[in-house]
């Protein structure tokens, strides 16, 4: 890197010197070429330019700069010489635009291994407590506001006023409404709870609709399979709001398929991933989204 | 940090070497053409054309005037670093696997692979100041180790030669008589092929990396095992920082694991370990294939890695690298 500090000093138009040595006045508009004397062993570089000033006189401008390298001053003399070597071999025909050497577009960091003793253990503990709750046989309490499972029901949510976590229920328009409501309340006006940030939008019907969007279809069920069986099979993946097994009224046997509705979409996705192809009661289950859905 | 990516090689990298002043980086690959780059911005300076086989190794003289390269075409060539012209060619009966200039650049140690009836051998050649006076014959030939000798380096004051290879035993030989002075202990030593070896800046200790997924630090004089660093991957390349107490291991993947692993792009990493505490400091990801070569700039402020993907990645450390604490 070179750092230039410039020191322009203008010399007066010297009347008796080069300006008058020009014999041909018709060519007065021509100026001598720009000269660069530069940088000598002290790094001093001189640039001599000629131009016409406002009065139409020829003017000689000498700019003296010192070129100094700030970073990489540690390069020794021979390394600097090598910098000026000519390219050889395959590099001879190299143009500046060749893409051989590129700076990475990504920032790469020296990734520290997880701070000793903290994160993975914590994650495991949280997961365990949840698993314990479900396995305890207790009903899984699902709070719709904070999404925290197993702690409290929605009406008892301590975080009633906060925005619900973005996981399953975010639609874009909802998000923008939320932000508008939030800004409204910040002005000090009263905002009814139904319009506050994080409140459930038209709770009831929306809830049911969303549940049906997290619906999983299970096919190739054995004829003995009933709702409790499906519930038992799918509960480990998360909170289940509804199970249904299609029944043949005449024979009382299962028609071989059913639906399971999850509270959380990820639970549904995990259930699909794990149970599709799972052998259950001597049949291989087929588990997929209830309506054709990608991502 | 923003690594500089240099894609000058079409084939996997095999070796990387900085010159003594740290302004040039030499890279060897399986594509027959060693290349020299400027170590500050990764700009390519030139290539050395002439080999007919994969180039496994190289070393540069202290004045950065001469380059020695060893290749699978059974030759070791001496080049003029500046112009790229060949000065001399040593011919062997089998691929050359490792070369190193001695202190003073008047000798070089070269190892050759086992090939047909020939066993692997360590050759010591005198390098004449004037290439026209160069003689072909070796001053000393040492035979003995079974299998490939992947690396042979000079010990302190050129008195000894340290070799390591496929038989997982490190040997120290007298450089004048060729007598075996020491062998590494089988119990505590590596269990599989030793792929790489690098000396500390002062030559008092050296680091070996092996396919047994570990790297070990040894004392040069007594060949006692000082430290062991464990990883989950076979180690292909090792490097030691000349500035801080860090060692870097670069590895690959067992051949058996190749088809079953998820090849997320840029997953292969160079792992940094604290030299003394043996603990992992972190990893630098980015390579698309196993890392085959690692080298630290002698000033310790940058390092480069070469991978199976043909890329050389040149990393200049951020200031907070120098403040890392475990």
TrEMBL record, chain A:
Domain RRM: 214-292
Keyword field: Cytoplasm, Initiation factor, Protein biosynthesis, RNA-binding
Start-end of Basic and acidic residues biased regions: 206-215
Function statement: RNA-binding component of the eukaryotic translation initiation factor 3 (eIF-3) complex, which is involved in protein synthesis of a specialized repertoire of mRNAs and, together with other initiation factors, stimulates binding of mRNA and methionyl-tRNAi to the 40S ribosome. The eIF-3 complex specifically targets and initiates translation of a subset of mRNAs involved in cell proliferation. This subunit can bind 18S rRNA.
Annotated region (Disordered), positions in chain: 176-215
Name of the featured protein: Eukaryotic translation initiation factor 3 subunit G
InterPro entries assigned to the protein according to its UniProt record, in alphabetical order: eIF3_g (IPR017334), eIF3g_N (IPR024675), eIF3G_RRM (IPR034240), Nucleotide-bd_a/b_plait_sf (IPR012677), RBD_domain_sf (IPR035979), RRM_dom (IPR000504)
Main localization, broad class: cytoplasm
Subunit structure: Component of the eukaryotic translation initiation factor 3 (eIF-3) complex.
Automatic annotation (TrEMBL), chain B:
Keyword Cytoplasm recorded: yes
Keyword Heme: no
WD repeat ranges, renumbered to this chain: 6-47, 48-89, 142-183, 187-228, 284-314
Keywords of the record: Cytoplasm, Initiation factor, Protein biosynthesis, Repeat, WD repeat
UniProt cross-references to InterPro entries, sorted A to Z: eIF3i (IPR027525), WD40/YVTN_repeat-like_dom_sf (IPR015943), WD40_PAC1 (IPR020472), WD40_repeat_CS (IPR019775), WD40_repeat_dom_sf (IPR036322), WD40_rpt (IPR001680)
Subcellular localization(s) per the UniProt record: Cytoplasm
Record's subunit section: Component of the eukaryotic translation initiation factor 3 (eIF-3) complex.
Similarity field: Belongs to the WD repeat STRAP family.
Function of the protein: Component of the eukaryotic translation initiation factor 3 (eIF-3) complex, which is involved in protein synthesis of a specialized repertoire of mRNAs and, together with other initiation factors, stimulates binding of mRNA and methionyl-tRNAi to the 40S ribosome. The eIF-3 complex specifically targets and initiates translation of a subset of mRNAs involved in cell proliferation.
Official protein name in the record: Eukaryotic translation initiation factor 3 subunit I
Upper lineage: Eukaryota, Viridiplantae, Streptophyta, Embryophyta, Tracheophyta
């Amino acid at each position: 890197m070179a750092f230039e500090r410039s020191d322009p000093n203008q010399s007066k138009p010297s009347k008796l010197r080069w300006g008058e040595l020009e014999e041909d006045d018709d060519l007065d508009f021509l100026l001598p070429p720009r000269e660069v004397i530069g940088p000598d062993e002290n790094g001093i570089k001189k640039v001599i330019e000629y131009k016409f000033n406002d009065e139409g006189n020829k003017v000689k401008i000498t700019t003296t700069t010192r070129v100094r390298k700030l970073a990489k001053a540690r390069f020794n003399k021979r390394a600097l010489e090598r910098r000026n070597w000519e390219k050889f071999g395959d590099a001879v025909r190299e143009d500046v635009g060749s893409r051989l050497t590129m700076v990475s577009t990504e920032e790469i960091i020296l990734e520290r291994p997880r701070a000793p003793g903290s994160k993975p253990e914590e994650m495991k503990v949280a997961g365990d407590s949840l698993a314990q709750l479900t396995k305890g046989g207790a009903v899984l309490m699902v709070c719709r506001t904070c999404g925290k499972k197993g702690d409290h029901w929605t009406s008892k949510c301590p975080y009633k006023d906060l925005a619900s976590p973005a996981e399953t229920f975010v639609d874009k328009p909802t998000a923008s409404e939320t932000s508008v409501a939030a800004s409204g309340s910040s002005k000090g006006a009263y905002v009814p709870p139904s319009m506050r940030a994080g409140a459930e939008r038209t709770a009831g019907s929306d809830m049911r609709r969303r549940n049906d969007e997290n619906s999983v279809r299970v096919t190739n069920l054995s004829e003995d399979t009933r709702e409790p069986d499906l519930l038992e099979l799918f509960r480990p993946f998360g909170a289940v709001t509804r199970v249904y097994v299609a029944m043949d009224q005449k024979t009382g046997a299962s028609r071989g398929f059913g639906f399971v509705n999850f509270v959380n979409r990820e639970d549904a996705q995990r259930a699909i991933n794990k149970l599709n192809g799972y052998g259950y009661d001597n049949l291989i289950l087929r588990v997929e989204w209830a309506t054709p859905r990608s991502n | 940090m923003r690594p500089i990516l240099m894609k000058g090689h079409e084939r996997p990298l095999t070796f990387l070497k900085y010159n003594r002043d740290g302004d040039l980086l030499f890279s060897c690959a399986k594509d027959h053409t060693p290349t020299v780059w400027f170590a500050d911005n990764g700009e390519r300076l030139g290539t050395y054309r002439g080999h007919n086989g994969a180039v496994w190794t190289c070393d540069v003289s202290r004045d950065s005037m001469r380059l020695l390269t060893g290749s699978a075409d059974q030759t070791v060539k001496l080049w003029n670093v500046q112009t790229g012209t060949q000065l001399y060619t040593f011919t062997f009966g089998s691929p050359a696997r490792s070369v190193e200039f001695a202190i003073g650049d008047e000798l070089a140690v070269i190892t050759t692979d086992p090939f047909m009836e020939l066993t692997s051998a360590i050759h010591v050649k005198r390098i004449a100041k004037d290439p026209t006076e160069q003689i072909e014959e070796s001053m000393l030939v040492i035979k003995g180790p079974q299998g490939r000798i992947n690396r042979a380096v000079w010990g302190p004051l050129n008195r000894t030669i340290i070799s390591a290879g496929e038989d997982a035993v490190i040997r120290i030989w007298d450089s004048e008589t060729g007598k075996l002075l020491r062998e590494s202990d089988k119990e505590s030593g590596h269990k599989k092929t030793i792929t790489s070896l690098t000396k500390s800046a002062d030559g008092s200790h050296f680091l070996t990396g092996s396919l047994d997924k570990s790297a070990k630090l040894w004392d040069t004089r007594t060949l006692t095992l000082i430290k062991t660093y464990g990883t989950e991957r076979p180690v292909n390349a090792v490097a030691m920082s000349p500035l801080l107490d860090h060692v870097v291991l670069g590895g690959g993947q067992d051949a058996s694991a190749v088809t079953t692993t998820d090849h997320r792009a840029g997953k292969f990493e160079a792992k940094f370990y604290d030299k003394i505490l043996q603990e992992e400091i972190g990893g630098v990801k980015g390579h698309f294939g196993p890392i085959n070569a690692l080298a630290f700039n002698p000033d310790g402020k940058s390092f480069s890695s070469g991978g199976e993907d043909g890329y050389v990645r040149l990393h200049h450390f951020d200031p907070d690298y120098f403040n890392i604490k475990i």
